[in-house]
Amino acid sequence: MAGQMVQYQTNGTKTDAYLATPASGKGPGIVVIQEWWGLVGHIKSVCDRFAAEGFSALAPDLYHGKSANEPDEAGKLFMALNVAQAEKDLRGAVDEVAKHSSTAKIGAVGFCMGGQLALFAGTVNGKVGAVVNFYGVHPNVKPDYAKLNGPVLGLFAEKDSFVTPQTAKDVDAAIRKAGKQSEIHIYPGVDHAFFNDENTGAYNKAAADDAWRRTLALFRQHLK
C-alpha cells in the first residue's frame, strides 16, 4: 500500500481513514467510499490507484473499526449504518482531503453502499463538485438531488439484482428531473461489484477498465 492510515476530527469525535497522495504531494481531492464490507484492502488499493494518477484520495472508515468478509455479516453492518453519523464522517472526510487537494472542488466516488453515499455526499457538502456512483444502493440513504453541485456519472451492471438496470435508469431520470447533470452506463453481461478485483466471482476486467477510464475523465474535467 502506498498510503497510510490517518485520523480526522468529525464533530468532536475521531474517524479513521486511509489516505493516499501523489508523488507531487497534492492532487485533486477524492473521497473514496467503501462497499458494505467496510474499509478493506480493495478500497485502499483504489485510493492508491487514484494517487498513482495524480489525485489525493481519502477513504473514511464508516464502520469505525468493523469490517466483514462474508455477506451475512456485511449485510448486518450495512443495515446498521447510522446515516446521521455517516453524514458527519463524510463531511469531515471532504474537509480532510481538501487539506491535501490542489483543487477547491472535491470528488466523491463510492461502490455498492458507497455509491449511494457518494451521491449523498454530493448533496450535503458544497465542496463536492463531481460524483461517481458505482452500482450504489442503500435503502436508508435518500439524497436530495436538487442539492447536487456537479455532474454525476453512474456505472451499473446489466445482471445486477441489487441495483437493476431499471433502478439505474430511475436514478438517472430523478437526477435529471432535479435539473442536474447525469450520465449512466449499464455494462452488458456483468454483475454487481464488477469493479472489485478481489471479488473473483463478479470482477470483469473489461468493464472495470472502461469504468475507471470514465471515472478519471470526469474528475479531471470537473475538479478545477
Which topology does CATH recognise?
Answer: Rossmann fold
Indicate the structural class. Answer: alpha/beta
Radius of gyration: 16 Å
| Helicity, as a percent range | 25-40%
Biggest sheet descriptor:
8 strands, mixed
Instruction: Provide the number of structural domains.
Output: 1
Mean pLDDT, nearest integer?
96
* SSE topology string: EEEHEHHEHEEHEH
Please state how the strands of the largest beta sheet are arranged side by side: 1-2-4-3-5-6-7-8
Overall geometry comes to globular
CATH-level-4 superfamily name? Alpha/Beta hydrolase fold, catalytic domain
Q: Roughly what fraction of the amino acids lie in strands?
A: 15-25%
Low-confidence stretches: none
DSSP helix count? 6
In CATH, the architecture is: 3-Layer(aba) Sandwich
Number of strands: 8
For this structure, what is the CATH class? Alpha Beta
N- to C-terminal separation? 27 Å
Structure commentary:
With 224 residues, this protein is an alpha/beta fold. It has a single domain, classed as Rossmann fold (3-Layer(aba) Sandwich). It is 36% helix and 22% strand. It is built from 6 helices and 8 strands; from the N terminus they run E-E-E-H-E-H-H-E-H-E-E-H-E-H. The chain has helices spanning 41-52, 71-80, 83-98, 113-124, 165-177, 205-222; strands spanning 4-10, 13-20, 29-33, 56-60, 106-111, 128-134, 152-157, 182-187. It has an 8-stranded mixed sheet with strand order 1-2-4-3-5-6-7-8, sandwiched between helices. Helix 3 crosses helix 4. The longest helix has 18 residues, at 205-222. The chain is globular. The two termini are 27 Å apart.
